[in-house]
Specification:
This protein is an alpha+beta fold. It has a single domain, classed as 2-Layer Sandwich (HIT family, subunit A), CATH 3.30.428. The chain is 33% helix and 23% strand. The protein has helices at residues 5-11, 50-56, 59-74, 77-80, 89-92, and strands spanning 18-21, 25-29, 37-43, 82-85, 100-105. It has a five-stranded antiparallel sheet. It is globular. The structure holds guanosine-5'-monophosphate (5GP) and zinc ion. Residues 5, 16, 28-32, 40, 87, 93-96 line the site of guanosine-5'-monophosphate (5GP).
């Protein structure tokens, strides 16, 4: 999508600190990190959010989680663990409408959930 921020990061029009890339996926540092390691994983093909992705190109989930696994192994964060978060829509506060998975790692994140 020509007016999508993360499509522009994918095609290099907008610079980013890339920490992972393969044929399908890139991972780059979030501009406003919420943890010692905060990387956004996006598929090179545009979808709006995980519901759009699930409906129209579900194999992208495989590509994204494969990229996250490879990144976590390469950086050793698979040992101590990490968190994956994705925001969908207004109540979650999604601000960029190109599906992205936040990967938070590198420190104790506090327990999330009941
Ligand atoms: P959302 O709130 O949609 O789940 O996440 C969007 C994320 O993108 C935010 O964490 C924000 O800090 C990050 N972000 C917004 N603009 C840019 C940018 O131009 N470059 C990078 N690397 N991250 C960005
Ligand atoms: Zn896009």
């Amino acid at each position: 999508m020509s007016d999508c921020l993360f499509c522009k990061i994918v095609d290099g029009t907008i610079p980013s600190s890339k920490v992972f890339e393969d044929d399908n996926v890139i991972g780059f540092k979030d501009l406003h990190p919420q943890a010692a390691i905060h990387v956004l994983f996006v598929h090179k093909k545009h979808t709006q959010d995980i519901n759009d992705l699930s409906k129209n190109d579900p194999n992208q989930f495989v590509d994204l989680f494969n990229g996250i696994r490879l990144f976590s192994e390469k950086n050793g964060v698979d040992k101590n663990g990490f968190r994956v978060v994705t925001n969908v829509g207004k109540h979650a506060g999604q601000t960029v409408f190109h599906t992205h998975l936040h990967v938070l790692a590198g420190e104790s994140l506090g327990h999330f959930g009941a």
